[in-house]
Amino acid sequence: MQKVTVLGSGVLGSQIAFQSAYHGKDVVVRDLDDATLAALPQRWAWLAEQYRRDLPDATDETLDAAIGRIRATSDLADAVGDADLVIEAVPEVLDIKRQTWAAVGEVAPERTIFATNSSTLLPSAIADATGRPERFLALHFANNIWVQNTAEVMGHPGTDRASFDAVAAFAAEIGMVVIPVLKEQPGYVLNSLLVPFLTAASQLYVRGVADVETIDTTWRKATGAPLGPFQIYDVIGMQTPYNLMRTSPDPDLRQFAEVLKRDYIDAGKLGRATGHGFYDYR
Fold first, then answer.
1. Of 124, 131, 153, 209, which is most buried by a Cβ count within 10 Å?
2. Domain locations in the chain?
3. pLDDT tens readout for residues 9-57
4. Could you tell me whether strands 136-141 and 150-154 are parallel, antiparallel, or unpaired per DSSP bridges?
5. CA of 38: how far to CAs of 26, 34, 107, 110, 231, in Å?
6. pTM of the predicted protein model
7. d(CA 106, CA 80)
8. Are strands 150-154 and 3-7 parallel, antiparallel or unpaired?
């Protein structure tokens, strides 16, 4: 598992790529948009600053070496042509993920193992699109991967054990605490706990019960937690919750998705990584 391809260079995709390279892997990042790829050096510089701040072993030398192990391309065949492992972090929309994996399955080597970083979708909903379902599973990372270093490994009923074990070993090699998920569960362990919490905060907000700062302060002060729910949204970024909530059967959550789109995404306030979300980090 030395040669790793990451599909998608958003918040989590870029973090997965950087963390893998930091731990010595050779990484190719693939994204559709050449302008997005051209901006990746700024993203690597931002991540390097976070590593310097949070990790005692992060030096200019180790960080420069990590960046040197990352290559970016918009060509799918080029990206996956020599990959041991492909990790997908494209938008949280089932059709997009299935289309992506169908294309990958046509050009990736037979040895390649496929992993989705999907936050909520089950691997069994995607696996057949790959053309090799036995080598497909989920590898889910928490945001701020370098310090919130959990990796949930979850197969589907057709995943072979060797692929599961290989992905778990890879996760450990890049500094993760491996969380084996013993059966398919929407949201794994982490998001099965986190999503209801964030959903409750969103409903309090759109129903006018309390504003963002009050909700966050209440949670922090009453529980001793370091972050409130809207601070967590800023860490996650706005795009993933928007994609999840915009088609929700719950009208409150659809309304919250509209707020995210109108007041934050369209305004370029995408969360902490961009300097502004519900809070201003500039």
1. 153
2. 3-181, 194-274
3. 988 999 999 999 999 999 999 999 888 999 999 999 999 999 999 999 9
4. antiparallel
5. 19, 6, 24, 31, 29
6. 0.81
7. 10
8. unpaired
